[in-house]
Design goal:
alpha+beta, six-stranded antiparallel beta sheet, five-stranded mixed beta barrel
């Protein structure tokens, strides 16, 4: 049978400030009403059955993943959570071992969760051709004909086309890491070169055999794995390496199937600007924006803020309620360096937005000052927070809409709209929404320390 493995554990740092560690780009609704991950799953319709789609991610995103796949018929049990990020070779090896335990003849399609693809019929036809090649024991990669001299993609150099397979495929000569611009210009006009899409198709058994040849230590960890629990602590001994560097650069079984669909990996802001419509001056606007004498300016916003610019050229402006990025188009790949600096400075802006999602709902920080913080809490119907207490802050809850069930010191109380309740420091408490509509509560925190780690949980529906 055919299986799909969607890699969904990345943090999308080059898409900052929209993409954050707790809300990476694969979960964002960038170009449609569906997220990039959801579109990836929908695109597989007619190729892979939903029960054969596996998603590899990490524990940070478990509840968001469950929420996003709820209507797409992918079982929650197909979410595979890595203990820690170890790059793509380990993620794929884990998936291959789990799939082999189900099906010794399995063909697996490996694809990232954050690509933009236009042309579903062409995509489906291309993947079906690649599956035919994979059944002949080839390791297949999907190649994209370069549209320009991009330095943001890896390249694949091809040799001669193969005959007798019934589909168009080309022998791969070598994989080339992201080149300098001078080389990218040469590759873009040379018909032997393709962009590396990061989409791969092979038999799970063939992949494991190549893993044994080129990454034998990793193979020893995964060779007999039928459940992720069997990996245990050995996972943390894995040397992080990409499948491109670890296997694809050495295997002699690699062939390329050329894509005839539009593709971009949406790796950075400049990739997005190439997709969206432009005005007569080459400007892109997804915001409340007014530009005067501007050319090549792309503006994106997740806030209600009005943005204006005068006399600027070739800029990307990305606005969120707590952070703004201003970047030259030619430096879009360097946004990751900003995120690295934010991490060094322990800035919260690289981790989360002012609105943070939780499995029970979300909260937004409305205002913060010395000794106080004000939040808007929204709780989904029939959901509740953990039974908890805080050692350094008190909380005052005002119900804005809906009806809250509040438990304090073991006693439950109903708090209706326009009413409030006070929770002193150190008191066990729980906030719950017993209704059928979203409960909205304004929370005023007061105390000497107001960060989210001042929490002791006694009972939690989400096992945190």
């Amino acid at each position: 049978m055919n299986y799909a493995v969607i890699l969904a554990g990345g943090t999308g740092t080059r898409f900052w400030p929209f993409s954050r560690e707790l809300e990476p780009k694969q979960f964002m609704h960038v170009l449609s009403n569906n997220s990039l991950l959801q579109n990836t799953i929908i695109r597989l319709s007619g190729i892979i059955e939903p029960e054969n789609i596996f998603i590899i991610s990490n524990k940070l995103y478990l509840y968001e993943l469950k929420s996003q796949i709820k209507t797409l018929k992918v079982p929650d049990s197909n979410i595979v959570l890595e203990p820690d990020a170890r790059n793509t070779a380990a993620a794929i090896a884990l998936a291959a071992s789990l799939i082999l335990a189900k099906d010794k003849e399995a063909v697996m399609l490996v694809l990232p969760s954050d690509h933009y693809i236009r042309g579903k019929k062409e995509f489906s036809s291309c993947i079906k051709s690649a599956i035919k090649c994979a059944r002949k024991d080839f390791m297949v990669t999907i190649g994209i004909k370069p549209q320009d001299a991009s330095t943001g993609y890896g390249y694949i150099k091809t040799a001669k086309p193969l005959s007798g397979l019934g589909v168009k495929c080309i022998k791969v000569s070598k994989f080339i890491e992201k080149p300098a611009f001078a080389l990218a210009k040469k590759y873009a006009i040379d018909k032997r070169f393709f962009w590396n899409s990061g989409i791969f198709i092979w038999k799970a058994s063939v992949f494991m055999e190549e893993l044994r040849k080129f990454l034998p230590d990793m193979y020893q960890i995964f060779k007999d794995v039928k459940k992720i629990e069997q990996v245990g602590k050995k996972w943390f001994s894995i040397k992080p390496i990409s499948v491109d560097y670890g296997i694809m650069a050495f295997s002699k079984k690699i062939v390329l199937v050329p894509a005839d669909f539009y593709w971009t990996d949406l790796g950075s802001w400049d990739a997005l600007t190439k997709i969206l419509p432009k005005d007569a001056c080459g400007n892109v606007s997804k915001a409340d924006f007014l530009g005067l004498n501007c050319r090549g300016v792309s503006v994106f916003s997740r806030s209600a803020r009005f943005i204006s610019a005068v006399g600027v050229r070739d800029l990307i402006i990305a606005d969120t309620p707590d952070a703004i990025l201003v970047c030259n188009n030619n430096n879009a790949q360097d946004v990751k360096k900003i995120v690295d600096l934010l991490k060094v400075g322990r800035r919260k802006e690289c981790i989360s937005h002012i609105t943070e999602k939780r499995p029970w709902g979300e909260f937004t920080v409305l205002q913060k000052g010395i000794g106080f913080k004000i939040k808007l809490i929204q709780i989904y119907p029939k959901k509740r927070l953990s039974l908890q207490r805080h050692t350094k802050r008190a909380e005052h809850w005002v119900v804005v809409s809906g009806c809250a069930k509040v438990t304090t010191s073991g006693k439950a109380k109903v708090v209706k709209a326009n009413n409030s309740i006070y929770v002193p420091i150190g008191q066990k408490h729980r906030l719950e929404n017993p209704g059928n509509s979203v409960l909205r509560v304004v929370e005023v925190q007061t105390g000497s320390y107001l960060e989210e780690d001042d929490i002791e949980r006694f009972d939690d529906d989400f096992k945190r």
